[in-house]
Design a protein that fits this description.
24% of the residues lie in helices and 37% in strands. The chain is α+β, with helices and mostly antiparallel strands.
């Protein structure tokens, strides 16, 4: 529970997430499997780490972490930034995730990602992120752009938008 908050005032989603980063980190089985840890949450932002592990290596000669693990890691952090930008509880799903690899990750270096949700439309959230393999912001390994579908309710999922009326209709 968030401390020092007037009980009449409902805390924002990001404030709850910031108080419970461990639960946010453990939200999905794949995040637990690869060791994603959410380290900081602020409004529309999330930062996280993933320890370098031998079982996550894709190239044994160079020690580079497999791209599937990197993709899963950045998707989790981008999703946390999306959630931290919401003003009311809602579900969301990754629509698109683009990663531009700048260089391979280095053997033995933990990964870190900083993500920012810079825009939310009625049904889509837009997130940018950078992934690093060191403590410095100069240790960039990948640039990320992601979009997430916002799902306010199951009924919302089943709507089709009519471009002429924009009122939507149930399927």
């Amino acid at each position: 529970m968030i401390e020092n908050i007037d009980p009449k005032i409902r805390p924002e989603i990001w404030q709850i997430m910031a108080q419970h980063t461990g639960q946010v980190s453990d939200a999905t089985p794949q995040a637990r499997a690869i060791g994603v840890i959410i380290t900081e949450v602020t409004k529309a932002n999330a930062t996280g780490t993933m320890e370098w592990r031998e079982d996550l290596v894709g190239d044994t000669q160079s020690g580079t972490i497999a791209s599937g693990a990197v993709i899963t890691f950045v998707d989790q952090i981008c999703g946390a930034a999306c959630m931290a930008a919401l003003t009311e509880p809602a579900g969301f799903a990754t629509l698109d995730l683009r990663i531009d690899y700048l260089r391979p990750s280095r053997r033995g270096h933990n990964l870190r990602t900083k993500a920012h949700c810079y825009r939310i439309s009625r049904h889509v959230a837009f997130v940018r992120a950078m992934a690093f393999d060191g403590d410095s912001d100069d240790d960039q390994i990948a640039a990320v752009q992601a979009t997430f579908m916002i799902i306010k309710s199951r009924k919302d999922m089943l709507k089709r938008t009519n471009p002429e009326t924009d009122k939507g209709e149930s399927v």
